[in-house]
Amino acid sequence: MAELKYEIVKKIGVLSESDKGWTKEFNLVKWNDYAPKYDLRDWNEDHTRMGKGITLTEDEVMKLKETLQNM
């Protein structure tokens, strides 16, 4: 299996923290050699392990923001 490379370009915010110390975070992350995308997922304390998450383009983040504001 190929190695997954990632770099957290910008930490935007922590949404919650579990009893085990993992945090659900919204960040701008560069995956492999692709352009950075917005990312929502769980991370361990030193960001060496991660849970499943979702990545969003800037347009998708703007649409999500609009949708949430209309709730």
Helix-strand blueprint:
Blueprint (H helix, E strand, L loop, with lengths): L5 E12 L5 E9 L5 E7 L6 E7 L1 H12 L2
Antiparallel strand pairs: 1-2, 2-3, 3-4
Polypeptide structure, described:
By secondary structure, the chain is of the alpha+beta class. Helices cover 17% and strands 49% of the residues. It has one helix and four strands. It has one helix at residues 58-69, and strands spanning 6-17, 23-31, 37-43, 50-56. Strands 1-2-3-4 form a four-stranded antiparallel sheet. The longest helix has 12 residues, at 58-69. It is flat. The model has no long low-confidence stretch (mean pLDDT 96).
Question: SSE string, helix = H, strand = E?
Answer: EEEEH
- Quick check: average pLDDT? 96
What is the strand tally? 4
Low-confidence stretches: none
What oligomeric state best describes the polypeptide chains here? single chain
Strand order of the largest sheet: 1-2-3-4
- In percent, how helical is the residue content? 10-25%
Mind summarizing the main beta sheet?
Answer: 4 strands, antiparallel
